[in-house]
Known about the structure:
The protein is an alpha+beta fold. The chain has a single domain, classed as Aminopeptidase, CATH 3.40.630. Helices cover about 30% and strands about 20% of the residues. It contains four helices and five strands. Strand 3 and strand 4 form a beta hairpin. Helix 1 crosses helix 2. The N terminus is likely disordered. Pfam families: Acetyltransf_1.
Amino acid sequence: MGDTSTPRTTVRITTCDTDETLAAASGLFEQYRHHYGEPPDADGRALGWLTEMVRSSMLTVYTASVGPGSDAAPVGLATAHATPASLAIGRFWQLRDLYVLPELRGRGAASALVTAVRDAALVAGATRLSLVTEPDNHAALGLYRGLGFRPIEGLTSLSLDLTPGHHHRAEPD
């Protein structure tokens, strides 16, 4: 009998730190933003923003390419950053964004991206890798749980909108 198993897909991860890799990442970043309802970027702001975040060391950007050849276009994107961990007198990393083109999901790109971020965080001496996702994003939750992430019980996530036009008043204690 012949081998009927599905061949393993080759996934290549790139850390985006050149003009060329950031340009490729910005196309995926735009699709990610559009996926979440943001309007198309008609003036190149996304590339400028990604470049600024990477060059200022505020964000690390990774892309995943699937298939043979080193020139395959990226199909997935992850961003991450280090954050001070004051109680541990160290740092932790946060996975900020993870996106894989919908038609190319299920080929290992998301898992490879998260693993690359985890590995970079370990090399950097991080004590933890955290992320936030929507409670109804079952595919993402399944992926993250399968990679060892666990919910943090007893914490509530809060946010204060600082955009112009929003009132920022303190409530009395």
